[in-house]
Structure formats: C-alpha cells, structure tokens
Amino acid sequence: MEIDPEFLEVFLEEAREELDNIRKQSAIWQRNLADRQAAASIRRAFHTLKGSGRVVGASELGDFAWEFESLFNHILNGTLPPSSAVAGLIGEVADVLQPLIDKAPLTAEIQSTMAALIARAQAFIQDAEEDISLTLAEALETAEPIKPVKAAEPSKPVETIEPITPVEAIK
Q1: What is the widest separation between alpha-carbon atoms in the chain?
Q2: Helix, strand or coil for residue 143?
C-alpha cells in the first residue's frame, strides 16, 4: 500500500501531538488515579493513533495503540480499577511509541518490547475480569435464598361500588 508522503507527514504530526497528550495526561492521571478526565484523554489519544495509523498503513502502530485504548475502555467502564502499575505501563508505552512516530525502523527489539507491553495490558484486563467472576461466584454462593412473603390482609374490607346504570340519550 503506497501512502501519499504528504498524508503520511500529516499523520506523523498528529501522532506526535497525541503522544505529547498521552505523556501530559499520564502525568496528571498518575498523580490522581480517580481523574476520569485524564483517563478519558489518554484513551482518546490511543483511539486517534489507532484509527489514523491504520488509515495510513501503519498497522503495527495502530494495532499497538488499540490494545491500550482497550485497556482504558476497561478502566473507564469500571471493570479494571486504575492503578499505579497501569500508569507506569503507559509511560513505557509512550517510550516505545516515540521511535515509531519518529520513523525509526521497526526492529525485532522494538517488536519484542511492544509484544511484552501488550501482554502486560492484556494481563491487567484478564486479572480484573477473573476478579469480577470470582466476586460474582462468591456472592452467589453466600447469598441467602429469597423467602416467599405472604401477602398482607387488607386492614379494612374493600367497599363494593354499585354499578352505574347508563343514562339514555336525551332526545
């Protein structure tokens, strides 16, 4: 797939901005892991890198960014609690993205590092999903069965209403 050099240059400029945004927002998020706005900004930056990277044929970069967009989707939807370990991982991800955005060749070493970072992100997600499954299973095991409840008797008898006889139409 041949990419127009001008289009590629626009992508690289945008990618540099998004990487800068990831670094800035990560620093904010690391100081306050409850900051959903910073987490959402990081997620959005990875989303942009994913989409734009795939459009220009930088599929390795796009696929790599997708893994971390997915990680932040889990954080933002509450299935993965934010942690300093995840925040530290994002710093490492930014360090790997830099040479890719600077047009460095994709070496075996960079690919290996990317694979290791992806594996760590996936492990965070998997561990969180297992924790949720265990919590649900424990809740089901310890839950008391619902006991049927007898309907209460009315305290006063219900009055019957006399039916109304329809009035014939006035002629």
Answers
A1: 99
A2: coil
H-helix segments, the chain: 5-31, 36-55, 59-76, 84-101, 108-142
Closest CA to 44 of 22, 77, 20: 22
Of 45, 1, 47, the closest CA to residue 19 belongs to: 45
d(CA 126, CA 44): 22
Cα separation, 79 vs 128, whole angstroms: 6
- The larger pLDDT score, comparing residue 53 to residue 165, is at 53
d(CA 98, CA 136): 41
- Given a contact cutoff of 8 angstroms between Cβ atoms, the answer to whether 89 and 38 are in contact is no
Q: Distance (Å, rounded) from C-alpha 62 to C-alpha 55?
A: 9
Q: Residue 7 in contact with residue 52, Cβ under 8 Å? A: no
**119-146 tens-digit pLDDT:** 999 999 988 877 665 555 565 666 677 7
What is the distance between the alpha carbons of residues 58 and 102, in angstroms, rounded to a whole number? 13
**How far is Cα 106 from Cα 100, in angstroms, rounded to an integer?**
7
Rounded Cα distance between 132 and 24, Å, is 31
Does residue 77 carry a pLDDT above 70?
Answer: yes
d(CA 116, CA 124) in angstroms, rounded, equals 13
CA distances from 104 to 30, 99, 100, 125 (A): 28, 5, 5, 30
